[in-house]
Amino acid sequence: CTITGDAPANTINITNADINGATLEGSEPAHGGGGTRSIWYKFQTAIANNIAIDATASIGFNPQLAVYTGVAVDALTLIVNGAGSVSFTAADTDYYLAIADDSAGIF
Question: Is 58 helix (H, G, I), strand (E, B) or coil?
Answer without folding.
Answer: helix
